[in-house]
Amino acid sequence: LFSSVEMAPRDPILGLNEQFAADTNPDKVNLGVGVYFDENGKLPLLACVQAAEKALMDAHKPRGYLPIDGIAAYDNGVKALVFGTDSDVIKQGRVATVQALGGTGGLKIGADFLKKLNPNAKVLISDPSWENHRALFTQAGFEVGTYRYYDAATRSLNFDGMLADLKAAAPGTVVVLHACCHNPTGYDITPAQWAQVIDAVKAGKLTAFLDMAYQGFAEGIAEDGAVVGEFVAAGLAVFVSTSFSKSFSLYGERVGALSVVCSSKEEADKVLSQLKIMIRTNYSNPPTHGGAVVAMVLGDPKLRAQWEEELAGMRTRIKAMRRALAEGLKAAGVKQDMGFITTQVGMFSYSGLSKDQMVRLRNEFGVYGTDTGRMCVAALNEKNVGYVCASIAKVI
Ligand code: PLP
Ligand code: TYF
């Protein structure tokens, strides 16, 4: 039965973790996978999460099945976060939101639903993008192409190329857009450029799928979410996947969501019923713990304020590490201008380093980034940034 099965390539990012774990270099630094580590290099367990977990443990609640679409308070919390508390689309009941297994789960439920809805549509992802975008939409049965986004030669965005590619897309094309903190480049488009993208999506009758995996990591929760409101204001039927993996530091709990904006409450009810089929036929219903924690934090004013403070702390520390990296590289003798590191946002920096340089960083210095030159600046701290800068300076 299995004689024709071939060995699949390992995930280019998650595979680095295994290599890092096996590395005996005492100075090794893991800038590969997109995970936030605190100033001591530790994966944080947020205080707001600890408080919610304690309350949940003390309540000793039984573990029945959740509804197929998840905890109602969770879905409502997601809606408020993504669309704003006073958003008209929520008041009008035009948003179908389901709890999902992380942001990946939200993307997959949306992809499966879109495939059923519009089987001949193509999908466009940014060039480059999070590699799982291509894999996931391909697995859902779509032909996946790219729109131009980053220009390696100038180390900057190719917005004209992006817009031209969107304008050339056939009606019905699903366009996957990073709502904020673009992975892997760290470059986001400006609000004025978003307005042009929205015009192109509307004029071309494209379907926008906003991937919101880092809400709160660029400028703030409302600031980063504002782009969703712009799509809604344009009257578009937009898909939004949400991930709390990074913003709650709940990676392994698999907490995320999918929200679909519809033109009426009746339509949203029908869409929700279809999303529930996707869920039921895959895993029946979501797990309780992570969703219960996030629902409690979002719904309790004190915990919510504590979360916002902790999220701001992560955001501020990442920005400080960007400055330390840029300044450290200069101090280490790197002549080329690395100032772009501080204009990029989110967890990642596209360093512009070549594959050869990244391989040398890994093999000679134990500094792990992806072959594409992506580094997770959220894993830098005061203790390792100097070593990282010195190592980079030696391979440049
Ligand atoms: N989308 C992007 C752009 C990401 O970087 C990630 C990272 O993990 C995800 C989606 C998936 O999120 P999750 O880990 O919650 O499935
Ligand atoms: O890009 C990253 O590093 C994160 C984590 O298959 C991740 O988004 C990486 C690869 C993957 C799943 C998550």
Automatic annotation (TrEMBL):
InterPro entries: Aminotransferase_I/II_large (IPR004839), Asp_trans (IPR000796), NHTrfase_class1_PyrdxlP-BS (IPR004838), PyrdxlP-dep_Trfase (IPR015424), PyrdxlP-dep_Trfase_major (IPR015421), PyrdxlP-dep_Trfase_small (IPR015422). Its EC number is 2.6.1.-. It comes from the Bacteria. The keyword Transferase applies. Keywords: Aminotransferase, Pyridoxal phosphate, Transferase. Its cofactor is pyridoxal 5'-phosphate. Belongs to the class-I pyridoxal-phosphate-dependent aminotransferase family. Homodimer. This is Aminotransferase. It comes from Ottowia testudinis. The lineage of its organism: Bacteria, Pseudomonadati, Pseudomonadota, Betaproteobacteria, Burkholderiales.
